Automatic annotation (TrEMBL):
<feature type="region of interest" description="Disordered">
    <location>
        <begin position="1"/>
        <end position="22"/>
    </location>
</feature>
<feature type="compositionally biased region" description="Acidic residues">
    <location>
        <begin position="1"/>
        <end position="10"/>
    </location>
</feature>
<dbReference type="InterPro" id="IPR051680">
    <property type="entry name" value="ATP-dep_Glu-Cys_Ligase-2"/>
</dbReference>
<dbReference type="InterPro" id="IPR007296">
    <property type="entry name" value="DUF403"/>
</dbReference>
<protein>
    <recommendedName>
        <fullName>DUF403 domain-containing protein</fullName>
    </recommendedName>
</protein>
<feature type="domain" description="Circularly permuted ATP-grasp type 2">
    <location>
        <begin position="103"/>
        <end position="482"/>
    </location>
</feature>
<dbReference type="Pfam" id="PF14403">
    <property type="entry name" value="CP_ATPgrasp_2"/>
</dbReference>
<dbReference type="InterPro" id="IPR025841">
    <property type="entry name" value="CP_ATPgrasp_2"/>
</dbReference>
<dbReference type="Pfam" id="PF04168">
    <property type="entry name" value="Alpha-E"/>
</dbReference>
<feature type="domain" description="DUF403">
    <location>
        <begin position="530"/>
        <end position="825"/>
    </location>
</feature>
């Protein structure tokens, strides 16, 4: 075939593909209708698809239906394996993240206008904050009512007159926007407290750009990495030393957006800290670490202002740092955003911003916001009451309307006569608590639902970061989509889904990464500080996983076809010993022993028993949740898969054994990941210390139970199986199991990686490498106990070991575990807190 014929075939194939894509698109959008009077992102005012969406669907429609479903599945799988979650207010457990399979598209010209409006608004709000907490000229000259500010619980008097360390009140600003009735972008609300969503926007981008990599590249979507790099560099520049230590202050793993906090900390290279990780000393904030107190220079806070300092703000808060406000007064730490900045989120402020823009910037607002009347002023209050059926009533400060059980706006037209009168009386009596706002119905965007494209309301959150070169705008944002077609507000807690946001350009975009040029980086081989809380969690993560492994090995030994439940009286006695051990460990109840057929299943997956394999893996998963910024995605995935597998109800003995075997393999995978992939710093050591400590305790207990003085072949064989040493024993001794050699192999043999002696020797190496917390040169208690146990094991003889000495060994190991915890971890007032033991660094 000639070259011309080949080209002709290629053109024919492309034309056929285009026709097929157009046919599919026509089918997808055949029922797509704009909601009456509502702007839509896909269809323009003339009812035709906007150019940017036409370009997208031309490429999207070229994908075969099964390929589209495969890529959707890839995106969903990534979210599940990465453990992307959020927690709605009042929830007791995390919810899986719901991501729309279609992005929100914004063309370059539209985005330029949007960015200009956000930049102007961020600069205006920074100036307003400077005046509110500084000279107070706006109030003094009547440009801003004092009651509109002082009525907000976010107005913090303790920070009045305190210049923000680092020079800025707002380091990160966000605005919720949507299309207004005229088709322009309108601001729905300002986020100045601690704007959330940037981390989720990053995760959304990673997921969708991987699932549709070719489509993503063809649309020339700018990367978000430069925005995060600029934000990171700006925080570093505000500290008063060249290599500052920066922390992300989180309320903890029960926070609604904890996953995002961990994501930002990991991506930006910051420490994830909680209030209890921090202490004030010498007019500075310090992190409690396993090496003592280490100075912290910058705090990117995700804790509300009023909870930051129980000494001067909310005394009931356990989330903050006592003395933090006084450190701010003395310019000892940079906090982003500055405490008190949340005052500008009040709806009461919206009605004054247009005039403030003219006053402070000398220009009109480039982007309008919802028409708002603060009822604290008589004229505005009368206006609202006269148009009560035409406006929505909202609380002037915070979420909800005072006196009404509602998280959203109250519409007088939907109230009965009594409710309407109560609303009028409330506004008349205390108008400062209420605002009237124009009734807004959100604009819509296309979403994919069961093979069709459907319009759904959305809210877009756009982020701005203050940098040395002005405000940097994230090219994209955090989009939330409502499930109801007539939604007036969108919150992830209301069951909404998220969407990635693509700013589409006609020009090719440069590939960007958060990795700086190597000539700008000082090479270092130290991983950084390890907060005591993180060390505590790593220690217990190792212990929980090792406990789960011990339980699984008992389940496997009891349930295997050649196990002790079968055969002789000696076998039955061995089975009895295993069951007693499972009862003592809390894996099964005493009553369940009456039905032997259910013992292994209960020990495997009874969530009510704290010692079952399922309960222990879930405990490890909860602990790992607090370590998200320190665990690799692969390690997190292994833990998640173990929990999911053990939660599936087993039907028979074969299913029990299969689940136990697969989970043991995954535990080995996690151990391999930790061994091969974790940096050999203090974090890895504490994880391994937890594993070694628990394995030593469990092995000593196994030896006491199955290598007792009168133990026979059956029990000794079980012990070799439990400590995974059958092959080693058989290669050394061409004999059936004999008491002394088995005891030596399980307890004393320092060459056996499953023996007690090996664990203790490794523990001594770890403890010797950990930072010393005392300066007097004397050996510390954990090392003293570990050396004593190692000396006993080194000098002991297998022939002279007995049950009593094995029990004493087990108790010594338990004491060692307790000593490690008390020495390094924050366990309350009786703990040896590092700041009491060492100087500052």
């Amino acid at each position: 075939m000639g070259e011309g014929a080949v080209e002709e075939d290629d053109r024919a194939g492309k034309a056929q593909g285009q026709r097929e894509g157009q046919r599919r698109l026509a089918q997808w959008v055949r029922d797509y209708r704009r909601l009456p009077g509502i702007p839509d992102e896909f269809l323009g005012p003339d009812g035709a698809p906007r150019a940017v969406w036409g370009r997208f669907f031309d490429a999207f429609g070229a994908l075969a239906p099964d390929e589209i479903e495969r890529r959707f599945g890839m995106a969903d799988r990534h979210l599940r394996e990465a453990g992307v979650t959020y927690r709605a207010p009042g929830d007791g457990a995390d919810r899986p993240w719901s991501l729309s399979h279609l992005p929100l598209l914004i063309d370059e010209a539209d985005w330029k206008q949007l960015s200009a409006g956000i930049t102007q608004r961020a600069e205006l709000l920074e100036l307003v904050l400077r005046d509110i907490y500084g000279e107070g000229r706006l109030v003094a000259e009547g440009a801003l009512p004092a009651a509109a500010i002082a009525g907000s619980p976010e107005y913090l008097r303790p920070v009045c007159g305190v210049p923000p360390p680092g020079g800025r009140y707002l380091s990160l600003y966000a605005a919720d926007v949507g299309r207004g009735p005229d088709g322009r972008w309108w601001v729905l609300g300002d986020r100045t407290q601690a704007p959330s969503g940037a981390g989720y926007a990053l995760e959304n981008r990673l997921v969708l750009s991987r699932a549709f990599s070719d489509l993503y590249k063809s649309m020339n979507v700018p990367r978000v990495a430069p925005f995060f790099e600029a934000f990171r560099d700006s925080l570093r520049a505000r500290a008063d030393r060249d290599e500052p230590r920066i922390g992300v202050l989180t309320p903890g793993s029960f926070s609604e957006t904890y996953f995002e906090h961990a994501t930002l900390a990991r991506y930006l290279g910051f420490l994830l800290v909680e209030g209890d990780d921090l202490a004030v000393s010498d007019d500075r904030v310090h992190i409690r670490t396993v090496a003592g107190l280490k100075r912290l220079d910058v705090l990117l806070r995700r804790v509300d202002s009023n909870s930051l300092d129980p000494l001067e703000l909310d005394a009931s808060s356990h989330l903050g740092v006592p003395g933090l406000i006084d450190v701010l007064r003395k310019d000892g730490v940079v906090v982003a955003n500055m405490p008190g900045s949340g005052v500008l989120e009040a709806r009461a402020m919206l009605g004054f911003l247009p005039a403030l823009s003219r006053r402070l910037l000398g220009e009109e607002l480039k982007m309008p916001h919802i028409a708002t009347w603060w009822c604290g002023q008589r004229i505005a209050r009368d206006e609202v009451l006269s148009r009560l059926d035409e406006v929505a009533i909202e609380g002037a400060y915070g979420r909800g309307v005072p006196g009404f059980d509602s998280n959203g706006p109250v519409l007088a037209s939907e109230l009965d006569a009594a409710g309407r009168q109560r609303l009028i009386d409330s506004i008349s009596a205390r108008g400062m608590d209420y605002v009237g706002q124009e009734v807004v119905r959100l604009s819509t965007m296309p979403v994919w639902e069961q093979g069709q494209i459907t319009p759904r309301p959305f809210v877009l959150r756009v982020f701005a970061a203050a940098t040395a070169d002005g405000w940097a705008i994230m090219p994209g944002g955090f989009c939330r989509i409502a499930e109801q077609a007539d939604a007036r507000a969108v919150s992830m807690g209301d069951g909404a889904r998220a969407a990635d946001v693509w700013v589409v350009s006609e020009k090719k975009v440069a590939t960007a990464t958060l990795l700086p040029a190597t000539d700008k980086v000082r090479i270092r081989r130290i991983a950084g500080v390890l907060p005591s809380r993180a060390a505590d969690n790593l220690f217990w993560l190792g212990r929980y996983l090792e406990r789960a492994e011990a339980t699984l090995r008992l389940v496997r030994a009891l349930g295997s076809p050649s196990g002790p439940n079968k055969g002789t009286a000696a076998s039955l006695q061995s089975a009895e010993r295993i069951q007693r051990l499972l009862v003592a460990w809390g894996a099964i109840s005493q009553a369940s022993r009456a039905t032997p057929g259910r013992v292994t299943a209960e020990a495997l997956q009874n969530a009510e028993r704290f010692g079952s394999a399922l309960s222990l893996v879930r405990a490890a998963q909860r602990t790992a949740t607090s370590l998200r910024e320190r665990l690799s995605p692969d390690a997190w995935q292994v833990i998640t898969e173990m929990a999911e597998r053990l939660a599936v109800e087993v039907e028979d003995d074969d299913s029990v054994l299969s689940a136990a075997e697969l989970t043991l393999q995954e535990l080995a995978s996690f151990a391999g990941l930790a061994q091969e992939n974790m940096n050999r710093a203090a974090g890895w050591r504490f994880l391994d210390v937890g594993r070694r400590t628990e394995r030593a305790i469990n092995t000593a207990r196994f030896a006491r139970q199955f290598a007792y003085d009168e133990a026979g072949d059956e029990d000794l064989d079980i012990l070799l199986t439990l400590v995974d040493s059958q092959i080693t024993y058989r290669s050394r001794y061409l004999l059936a199991p004999i008491l002394a050699p088995v005891r030596d192999l399980a307890v004393l043999d320092s060459y056996n990686p499953r023996s007690v002696a090996f664990q203790v020797a490794t523990l001594n190496e770890h403890i010797a490498a950990l930072p010393s917390l005392k300066e007097h040169g004397l050996i510390e208690r954990p090392q003293r106990l570990a050396l004593a146990v190692q000396a006993m094991l080194t000098t002991a003889e297998a022939e002279k070991l007995e049950v009593k000495s094995l029990f004493s060994l087990e108790q010594d190991l338990l004491s060692l575990a307790e000593a490690i915890g008390l020495h390094y971890f924050p366990h309350g007032p009786n703990a040896s807190r590092p700041e009491k033991l060492t100087g500052l660094a």
